């Protein structure tokens, strides 16, 4: 990680299941029209930033987003399995009402200890933090100095935990809109946003 000048973090564009408020996790749904447009705006905004490599989650919504961005950047795309979204286990594909019917009280238990709580049959944020560290270790062994990482909101929080030196609660409090790319200086642990909501963080 010490070799990086800047790390860019992008979330995939909006998907059909995002609109429906369904838990995606390791399942997938297609980018919406707005999601495709968000990826194109990322492509335009990221030109001129000296990005020298793209690393992406293996999930389709992230690969589709990275491919659109790369049409403008013309780089190699490296799929990193550890960048996949947090595994939602038996919650995958469900909306909150269905979760409350099938798993009564589970969302309240999650709220009580969000970092260590584990999706039934899936992962916890603590699990994802370990995986995010592995992803960054793998990316850090590549020659890129200004990599772009295209992944997801939940695993993205854990990437930020490591890159910004956050404690778990601070990391969990962060949000990552579809239309914003975070520009992180790992040395100073400063984070700025590129996009319509472009503010320092």
From TrEMBL:
Membrane is among the record's keywords: no
GO cellular component: cytoplasm
Keyword annotations from UniProtKB, A to Z: Glycolysis, Isomerase
Keyword Transport: no
PROSITE patterns in the cross-refs: PG_MUTASE
Molecular functions per Gene Ontology: phosphatase activity
Family matches, as InterPro entries: His_Pase_superF_clade-1, His_PPase_superfam, PG/BPGM_mutase_AS, PGM_Phosphatase
Listed Pfam families: His_Phos_1 (PF00300)
Active site (catalytic residues): 12 (tele-phosphohistidine intermediate), 85 (proton donor/acceptor)
Source superkingdom: Bacteria
Residues at which substrate binds: 11-18, 61
Protein name, entry field: Phosphoglycerate mutase
Organism for this UniProt entry: Dactylosporangium siamense
């Amino acid at each position: 990680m010490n070799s990086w000048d800047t790390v860019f973090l992008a979330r995939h564009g909006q998907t059909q299941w995002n609109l429906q408020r369904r838990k995606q996790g390791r399942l997938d749904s297609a980018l919406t029209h707005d999601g495709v447009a968000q990826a194109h705006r990322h492509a335009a905004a990221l030109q001129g930033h000296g990005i020298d490599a793209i690393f992406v989650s293996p999930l389709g919504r992230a690969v589709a987003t990275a491919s659109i961005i790369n049409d403008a950047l013309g780089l190699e795309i490296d799929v990193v399995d550890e960048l996949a979204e947090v595994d939602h286990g038996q919650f995958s594909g469900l909306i909150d009402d269905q979760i409350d019917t099938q798993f009564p009280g589970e969302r309240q238990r999650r709220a009580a200890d969000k970092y260590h709580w584990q999706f039934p049959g899936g992962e916890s944020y603590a699990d994802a933090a370990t995986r995010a560290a592995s992803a960054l270790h793998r990316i850090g062994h590549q020659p890129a100095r200004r990599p772009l990482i295209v992944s997801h909101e939940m695993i993205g929080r854990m990437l930020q935990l490591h890159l910004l030196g956050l404690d778990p609660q601070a990391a969990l409090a962060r949000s990552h809109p579809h239309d914003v790319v975070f520009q992180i200086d790992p040395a100073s642990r400063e984070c700025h946003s590129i996009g319509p909501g472009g503010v320092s963080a």
